[in-house]
Amino acid sequence: MSDALVPIGLGLATLVVGFLVLYLLRLILRRAARRTQVAAALSKHGRKPAHLAVVALAAHLTIVGLPRADWHRAAQHVLLLVDIALLAWGAAAVLAIVIDLALPRFRTDVRDNRNARRIHTQVSVMQRMGVAGITVLAVGAMLLTFPAFRGAGASVLASAGIAGVIAGFAAQSLLGNVIAGMQLVFSDAVRLDDVVVVEQQWGRVEEITLTYVVVRIWDDRRLVLPTSYFLSTPFENWTRTEAAVIGAVELDVDWCVPMEPMRAQLERTVKENERWDGRVCALQVTDATGSQVRVRALVSAGDAPTLWDLRCDVREDLVTWLRTTHPDALPRVRAEIDGSVLPQIAPGPQPHRHDHPRHQEQDAEHRDDDHGGDRAGDDGEHQVDGAEDGQGQEEQPPLRHLVGDRHQEGLAALTKKDAVLRDRRDQQS
Asked: Could you list the residue ranges that cross the membrane (predicted)?
């Protein structure tokens, strides 16, 4: 029992001293990180592997000092696996530290950052490939520590070709995306922070891996696409060669819009806007059909988000200018009504003269005149008829205005019919 207390105490002391040293180093690196990037990278990526190294060292010192037992060999084998994992983790941490020290030299917060974004994209993918390679080597080394796997190495190598073919068919989609990801990165077709339009969505490339690409859409949603999508489907890359882009603002206005004042207003608007980069400012008529004229204003900005805000500002200013200074240039619909081209309207059935109450009274008067032979009744009838004719003549002009010249023939026929009826009544009387 006394032989076991010494190695256990040594292991505990190693843990305490080791964690205390790591804590002091952490404080030192945290203060130094404000002045140097090396300290910041060591503090970020080396802290967890260092803690695991202290635990592994304490375990080694404890097991080595303990008396031999049946579990001693199994414990040493577990520690060997931990050592392999620790080495792999340390190698991945060193790779991350080197990349963190190298990438800040290529700044992406400047206007012309195309080369920097290309390097960031390629380095990030190479880092993932390096970590994957280290993981595969570590797993292989762990498997070789088992005697069963070591003895079956020859048969495994012999069947590697057949296994590779089977794995290729089984993981065809995965391997296709991996190959597409490598081709996508090293062909410089798309980079980190590129402004792209995919699936009718505008966004920025936020992450590129060997199997998928993450696009951050303008409303902070994420669109995840396989890497093979960018090799098989056309997409728009607004920052392929440079970040500066040109945008259009289209307005539908009336034919009487004053182009020169509107062009001058556009120039004043962009010159007063800090988002305009001073490259492009133009106003063109792109279409003139129907009742409207389409006007397009071209403006430019340093990047896509700035261009979007500039387009909104220009559109708002031009709409306000048209509404306040030239309201007659706002879109409107004109219509000219010509009576000669209106469709013919068949006159409805006219009521018979004898069906009207007034005409019935007149007919009764005529009958009285026939029996009495009073000439004065005839004169009264002629006066009544003349009044009715005058009334009809007063109603004709608005009727002619409504139905058009083509319907005057029908009106003349009705007038002639009324005249014939009056003559017959006169003869009878």
From this structure: 6-29, 50-66, 78-104, 125-146, 152-175
Q: 3-state SS string over the chain?
A: CHHHHHHHHHHHHHHHHHHHHHHHHHHHHHHHCCCCHHHHHHHHHCHHHHHHHHHHHHHHHHHHHCCCCCCHHHHHHHHHHHHHHHHHHHHHHHHHHHHHHHHHHCCCCCCCCHHHHHHHHHHHHHHHHHHHHHHHHHHHHHHHCCHHHHHCHHHHHHCHHHHHHHHHHHCHHHHHHHHHHHHHHHCCCCCCCCEEEECCEEEEEEEECCCEEEEEECCCCEEEEECCHHHHCCCEECCCCCCCEEEEEEEEECCCCCHHHHHHHHHHHHHCCCCEEEEEEEEEEEEEECCEEEEEEEEEECCHHHHHHHHHHHHHHHHHHHHHHCHHHCCCCCCCCCHHHCCCCCCCCCCCHHHCHHHHHHHHHHHHHHHHCCHHHHHHHHHHHHHHHHHHHHHHHHHHHHHCHHHHHHHHHHHHHHHHHHHHHHHHC
Architecture of domain 245-329: 2-Layer Sandwich (3.30)
Pick from 242, 228, 239, 251: nearest CA to 177: 228
Calculate the average pLDDT of the chain: 76
Please state, in angstroms and rounded to a whole number, the distance separating the CA atoms of residues 196 and 202. 6
What is the tens place of the pLDDT at every residue in 58-114? 888 887 777 777 777 888 888 888 888 999 998 999 888 888 888 888 777 666 666
| Dihedral sign from CA coordinates of 159, 163, 166, 169 | negative
CB 184 within 8 A of CB 196: no
Rounded CA separation 117/180 (Å): 19
In tens, the pLDDT along 214-263 reads 999 988 899 999 888 888 888 888 887 777 888 999 999 998 889 999 99
Model confidence, pTM: 0.50
CA distance 32 to 218: 38
CA–CA gap between residue 383 and residue 385 (Å, rounded)? 5
Contact 301, 239 (CB under 8 A): no
